[in-house]
Structures are given as C-alpha cells and as structure tokens.
Design brief:
single chain; Beta-Lactamase; Rossmann fold; nine-stranded mixed β-sheet; seven-stranded mixed β-sheet
Length: 447
Amino acid sequence: MKSKNHLPQYTTKNMEQLSTIEQEEYRKIKEELIQRKVNDENITVEKEDIISLINQKSINSDKIYNKLENDLNGYGKIDGLLKDDELEEVMIIGNSKPVYVYHRIKGMMITDITLSEIEIRQIINKIANYVHRKIDKQTPILDARLPDGSRVNATIPPITADGPTLTIRKFKKEQLTILDLIKSNSISAHLAAFLWINIDGMDVRPSNIIISGGTGSGKTTTLNTLTSFIPLKERIITIEDILELQIPQDHVIRTEIRPPNIEGKGEISMDVLLKNSLRQRPDRIIVGEVRSKEAITLFGALNTGHSGMGTLHANSTQETITRLTNPPMNVPSIMINSIDFILMQNRIYHPEKGIIRRVTEVSEVVGMEQNTPQLNEIYRYDYSKDALEYVAVSSNALNEIANMKGLSNHDILDEISKREEYLQQNIANKRSNIYETKQILNKYYDY
C-alpha cells in the first residue's frame, strides 16, 4: 500500500526520444526556423515551414516535426499539460526536478516530466516575449498571462536557489456559469436567487459585494458568474492586475494594470485605473482583487453612489474587515458601511468528493457600533451536510428594496422563491455557456 505521503502519479505521453542523428538535424532545423523569424512580427511557425525544411534535408521524421512544433509553437514538454482541461495548475520547481500539477478532482499530482535549466528558460523567455517583458538578474520575477488567459509567475536565480521556476494557473476553456455552480453545489439555488435580487436591485437598489477567500478557492470564478445578474442596461468597468474576468455583457470596458519597465517607469497601477474609471461614469465597477491603496478609492466611489463588486484574500468575514481597515488598504471604518455583503469562499477537502469549493458564509454589514462594523449572518455552511443554510431573520438590503418598490417583506421572499425555482428548472437543461446563461436569466424578466 502506498504511503499517504506519496503523491498520485500523473502519467503523460512522452514523445519518442530522438536518435543522435535526429537530434543534430533537429538542432539545425530549429536554428534555421528561428533565424527566419528574427525580423518577423508573427512569431508563429507555420506547419509548412517545418515540413519544407525537413524535406529539404531528406529527413522523413514525424518525431522531429512533433518536437519542433511543440518547442516553437507550444511550450515544449509541458505543452500536453497545458492542453489538459482537468488541470488547474502546472508547477515547475527547478532544474531536473519533477513537474507537479494540480488536478481539479485529484488535487496535487507528480508527473513523469523533468526539464533542464535551458528548457525551463526557453519556456519562460517565450512567455516573456509574448507579453513584451524581460526577465533577467535585474528583474528576476515575471507576472504575465498566456493568450488563453492563464496566469503565469516565473522566477530565476538569484531569488530561487534551485534554478528557474514556473507556475501556470490555468482556466477552463469554458467559463463556469451560475447554473454550473448550483449544479456542483458550490452555491445553493436559494443563495443564487438571493444574490440575483440584490445584484440587480430590482432596478432600485443594487448591492455592493466583496468575495473573500484563500488562494485557489474560486473567488474569481464566483465573481465572474455573479456578473450575469447585472442588468444589460448598465455600463461596467473591470479593473484587474491580470485579465481573467469574462463578463457576458455588451457594454464592458476591461482594463489591466501595467507594471513598471526595467527602468522603473511606465507603471499604471490599479489605483490609477480605478480613479480613471470614475471619469467614465460607470454604473458598476468590478475590481478583480483588492490589495492595496486602491481600496480607499473604491470605497470612496461606493460611498458616493457607485455600485461595485470585487474579491479579497481573507479567511473569514471578520478578517476581511480587518484587512480592509489596516495597512496597506487603510479604509476608514465608517466607509465599510458601503459594503452590503461579504461572501466567504473556501476550498475544502471532502473525504468522499475530494477537493470541493463552497461558499461557506454570507454576512451583511448592518451598521457601526463603537467604530466597529457589525455583521448579520445570512447564510452558514454545514460541513456535515455539505449544505449552505439560510439562517437570517431579516436582511437590511432586502428591506430597503421592499420599501423602495412598495412591496412587503413577504413579496420579496416570494420573489426569491420564484427565482430559485427558475434557476433549478434551468439546471436540467444542456450545459450553457456564459452568454447563453445570460439569455436564460434575461428571459425571466419577460414572465
């Protein structure tokens, strides 16, 4: 029996090894292809170029062609890992060490792939060239994204002693929808309906929401799915350090920070983007992740009537507030009232289901007492039942919507039940993408 300390194996289909003669021909062909592309803006090497050179050298080798295509147009030995939609993360931790992956169901796994320092640096440099950045001894850290939106972090010596490292956080080819999250039990249909009403505000009072949780807990995915509840008539501006959000609206302006160049100039921070967004008269501001002084700008906007949503790293609702009100964010306690709801998201190991992601708590900010924000728990996760339970006696946000619409609390609760039933009915439909799901949600208003 395997020790619990042993990671499960992820077996790849390694390419056949090249013979000594094939390796030499491979090197010559690769160098010639690279020379052809030195002054060409299109760095992609066409299939015909490779085949032409192989034929000119009287070589008929599928092995050489496959390796050339992988190295020049793909990412070498890890190309197959990046194409596997069941993998969340690919981790290279140094020279000649096994590559690790994080599987969406099985968790951390070890592969049968190792890379030399040269191979790792080739992959890192290719990514750096794509984003027009440099990684060298003066700037030994690279944050970037691949064309498919996957997030990349790379480091090189001297800051990583065992050689260059590369971490790629992948995203599913098809973005998950709110219906997917309900189906997987990441969020309950009742909570989805509750948030639907609070996000569209029934056209009178949209709520401001912060989604908190740890790394890899699914905060960004949940934020992305909740944007489908935003009315079509609204103007949305997103602000991210790395573009990840894919919002199913026609009127969206997506903005991304720019890090400083090697001379320390040209930086465009999240705070600058946030201040600029306010000049564009947005109806809804969505911040990919609140980290620093942009928090004050965001909360200033929320306090002057703008609506917003965002994510934040924290392990509890109370920690969320503590992080917001302390350095480096330093949001004045009185401004915390501009948040309506804090959603806690967690990645949990379940003995039967493996790694699961769940919204584990929803709390409402209901006021201040002795300069301390007061919280009202709305939903609580029951670990023994793997279920999210509605525990609120009332909700200030719902009460305000009811008053402004001239409705009773019973009318609002009845509307939540109707929307919950509508969502459950549509879960049974074939899987819909984010745009089709948006159309499904829009049809509800026609009833």
